[in-house]
Structure formats: structure tokens, C-alpha cells
Design goal:
By secondary structure, the chain is an alpha+beta fold. The protein has one domain. The chain is built from one helix and five strands. The chain has one helix spanning about 35-50, and strands at about 5-15, 25-30, 60-65, 75-80, 85-94. The chain has a five-stranded antiparallel β-sheet, covered by helices on one side. Strand 4 and strand 5 (about 85-94) form a beta hairpin. The longest helix has 19 residues, at about 35-50. The radius of gyration is 13 Å and the shape is globular.
């Protein structure tokens, strides 16, 4: 790895409560910069929030990096716009 990363944006449905959107894991896109990834993730969070009548699409939570010393892979942001779905924007190898 040359130290370059892209950003993966995906939606994950809940597997515990039985309310699973199809598909349970949906890739939204891969982006070259964090700003574009965050914008796409926030848009997806707004869509989910409208569908479920929820109100938490704005503020993301930090996602911790992989447990490889010095690596930021897997680090990024998570939105919880509904009780049953999350949207992630995380770093992946380029």
C-alpha cells in the first residue's frame, strides 16, 4: 500500500430486530476525498431519516481506525438516521 486511501460509503441494515432493508448492506459509492464521501453519506442519512420519520441525519459519530499501528484504514464517520439503519463513510486502501 502506498498510503493512499479512498472513502467507501455504505448503508447497513439492522440484523437484530428483523427490520432489514433490502439489501442489508448497500454500497453507495467510493470517493477520492472525505468531503465528497461525507456529503454522499449525509444525503443517504437524510433519505433514511425521511423514510422512517427520524430526525438524526446530521451529526456523525467517529469510527475508530483498524488496529494496525499507524493505520487509519477503517476510520471515518457513522450516521444513525434511524434505529434500524446506519450509514458509514470509512477509509479504504487505494
Amino acid at each position: 500500500m502506498g498510503g493512499k486511501v479512498n472513502w467507501l460509503v455504505c448503508k447497513v441494515g439492522c440484523i437484530e430486530c428483523g427490520i432489514i432493508e433490502e439489501p442489508a448492506l448497500m454500497m453507495i459509492g467510493v470517493y477520492t476525498d472525505e468531503e465528497a464521501a461525507v456529503a454522499a453519506a449525509r444525503e443517504a442519512a437524510h433519505t433514511i431519516a425521511r423514510r422512517w420519520g427520524m430526525t438524526n441525519p446530521e451529526e456523525p459519530y467517529a469510527v475508530r481506525a483498524a488496529e494496525v499501528l499507524g493505520s487509519r484504514l477503517g476510520a471515518g464517520w457513522m450516521w444513525t438516521p434511524a434505529d434500524h439503519e446506519q450509514v458509514y463513510a470509512v477509509q479504504i486502501p487505494f
